[in-house]
Amino acid sequence: xxxxxxxxxxxxxxxxxxxxxxxxxxxxxxxxxxxxxxxxxxxxxxxxxxxxxxxxxxxxxxxxxxxxxxxxxxxxxxxxxxxxxxxxxxxxxxxxxxx
Length: 99
Description:
Layout (H helix, E strand, L loop, with lengths): L3 E7 L10 E7 L1 H20 L16 H17 L12 H5 L1
Antiparallel strand pairs: 1-2
């Protein structure tokens, strides 16, 4: 249902270098409205039947990365205060390091 016209948009710098451009998608109004309607219905279904876990913080109303950070810090501190062993594994994208 989604067809887009993709056009290059100059970020900055030399116009002859393709790396200085980023693609933008120009979508029809109909596809934007349809996407919003479908998104609302999907969110309503997921919330009504409690399909998503409480630990799912992305793409939910009133559930931001701040909530995720608070939960991580709070549960870590509670565990440490209870003399429990706490461990964590964190990944960082190489792309983020070079940006």
